[in-house]
């Protein structure tokens, strides 16, 4: 018999959950039953004691409960199987899993797929799991089983990559390990026909920034005969895409030597000559000071400047500064691809920031495209906060 303890919310604090919003903030909690430990599966009840659903409890964090079910369903192996099956079916229907030249995608996008706290990325028969709550971490065996059933032969290995937040809260040390199988022979992760080295062990996130797939494709469409500067390049996703599209020269800039090294391996692995590509290890803001008038396309894809709403103001200043630096010296007719992956900075704020930078730089700017995260990073209708990636393509005169 499962011993599930309950948590009672304050009056009116059940409204979000009744709309199926999956987060309960610590300030909404009235009563925590004795003996509830961090990471426990808890029953969530309204102020009057009515049952609302089940969630994972995280002690001492601002999001205290991540809801897993909104009815009487107790999360179980079968529950995870169904959720995972559905999420995988979505990606299969999008032709992202095992298509010609395309086998990199996000299989499970946390709240967007009804599994808050869980990220699963897929790289050619290898799934990489990242759990962001202890409760979800405890469900690891069910997750692995669910993936095995949903993917069958299309799964050879599952790697667990511990998230920084779990480590920081002292829950775990390093839990990075193969939890099923291992790296397949002839492992070849591909996106839009390009091959990428996935650095499971030391790479950032799960090894690759899958969310820029469609935006990288747009770069490839617009790069013919162009000279491209890819700042915050990581392992060169945008750089390879530009080369694929016929760029004459690409410069990749990042502060991480290891990311640049893998980027260079990616250039060679895709059959491009060393001469067409240059790596620059530098701080992007410093580098932009020297001017970018040499380039036809400039890409700015910084890490999230705002990790929380309280950091929003500083983040906006940060976005303004780098966009201003680039816009000041870009040549006439050139394109700026500029992004923000900060969830706390929404579309409109980001657009206004880039416009403010263009005004301050005294440049005529046309917004040609508004970009977002792709379909394998879905946003739950009940959790609009899940829309985090936005970008603009601006033509400067
Ligand atoms: N555009 C990449 C993803 C970028 S992730 C892709 O498509 O794969 C952000 C990158 O910015 C990381 O690789 C990180 O090493 C780098 N970075 C962080 N701070 C930086 C700085 N101040 N200057 C240059 N690079 C930085």
List the helices and strands and how they pair.
Elements: E1 6-9, H1 15-18, E2 23-25, E3 29-32, E4 41-45, E5 51-57, E6 63-69, H2 77-93, E7 104-109, E8 118-123, E9 126-131, H3 134-138, H4 140-151, E10 157-160, H5 164-168, E11 177-181, E12 189-191, E13 194-196, H6 213-222, E14 227-231, H7 237-244, E15 249-254, H8 257-269, E16 277-281, H9 284-289, E17 297-300, H10 312-329, E18 334-340, H11 347-361, E19 365-372, E20 390-396
Helix pairs in contact: 2-4, 6-7, 10-11
In short:
The chain has about 400 residues and is an alpha/beta fold. The protein has helices spanning about 15-20, 75-95, 135-140, 140-150, 165-170, 215-220, 235-245, 255-270, 285-290, 310-330, 345-360; strands spanning about 5-10, 25, 30, 40-45, 50-55, 65-70, 105-110, 120-125, 125-130, 155-160, 175-180, 190, 195, 225-230, 250-255, 275-280, 295-300, 335-340, 365-370, 390-395.
Describe the structure.
This protein is α/β, with parallel strands linked by helices and 397 residues long. It has three domains: 6-69, Archaeosine Trna-guanine Transglycosylase, Chain: A, domain 4; 77-191, Transcription Regulator spoIIAA; 209-396, Vaccinia Virus protein VP39 (Rossmann fold), CATH 3.40.50.150. Helices cover 28% and strands 26% of the residues. The chain has eleven helices and 20 strands. Strands 16-15-14-17-18-20-19 form a seven-stranded mixed β-sheet, with helices on both faces. β4 (41-45) and β5 (51-57) form a beta hairpin. α2 (77-93) packs across α4 (140-151), α6 runs parallel beside α7 (237-244) and α10 (312-329) crosses α11 (347-361). The radius of gyration is 22 Å and the shape is globular. The termini are far apart. The structure holds S-adenosyl-L-homocysteine. Residues 204, 209, 212, 232-235, 237-238, 254-256, 259, 283-284, 301-303 line the site of S-adenosyl-L-homocysteine. S-adenosyl-L-homocysteine (SAH) is lined by residues 204, 209, 212, 232-235, 237-238, 254-256, 259, 283-284, 301-303.
